[in-house]
UniProtKB/TrEMBL annotation:
Species this chain originates from: Alkalibacterium putridalgicola
Family the entry assigns: Belongs to the RecO family.
Domain called DNA replication/recombination mediator RecO N-terminal: residue spans: 5-81
Taxon lineage: Bacteria, Bacillati, Bacillota, Bacilli, Lactobacillales
GO BP of this protein: DNA recombination; double-strand break repair
Cited HAMAP family: RecO
Name of the protein in its database record: DNA repair protein RecO
Keywords on record: DNA damage, DNA recombination, DNA repair
Leader sequence segment: none
Amino acid sequence: MSQLEEVHGIVLSVRKHRERDFLVKLFTREYGKLMFFVRGTKNPNNKLKPAIQPFTQATYIADIRDTGLSFLRDSKLVSPFSAIQQDIFKNAYGTYVLQLADAALEDRQMDPGLFAQLVLGLEAIDEGLDAEVIMNIFEMRFLRYFGVMPELRGCVICGVTEGAFDYSSLHHGLLCPKHYYEDERRYHASPKAIHFIRLFSVISFDKINSISVKDETKKEIRAVIDQLYDELVGIRLKSRKFIDSMKEWENLMKPQEDATD
């Protein structure tokens, strides 16, 4: 059985199929992640071509199949994230966020709330908000979808929710200073980094304008999230490695930019 209907979607990936066709993976509000077959988009007059570009959201007229590939027939209200498409740094962060979403989500796992947050997050990157912070928020958010979200609400021993904390792999959550002795091999992380990963795990993207993070704290946050992903998730996407190398370019470019001011 198939049905022709409108779905709201974000392009996760596009892959060439044979000579003229494409396989397009969308994260849709109505059905979750689906793979679509798109025929003949090399034709310059094909109306679907702008709607299947990376970093695009649109309303798609789709032939939804219960199993296997579905088909895109038309589109409307096409809205590209133009700055992400054109800026290599924004593109790198956006690519990683969408690849992480692809890795974390099962096919046909409907989640309108996450769809809305992805749209808001990509809009924030597109508008020039701190892309590294937005990436960190998604990394913390997706731990739940990988099925490994640790206890971050408070100390796993006594339940206290305020003050300094450290992360314990042994207890899969936070420890307050009174209970640090429960795990001598705890992360010994910066209290600021732990504060922000707790915040990132619950904050909505309509509130991120108020977040300001110093570069040194960002490095500490990065170290904690990397430990969590290495230990709990076990994946390291190529797009993340690209961001790491990209930061080296930024450091090399800064003196040149300063010299021209």
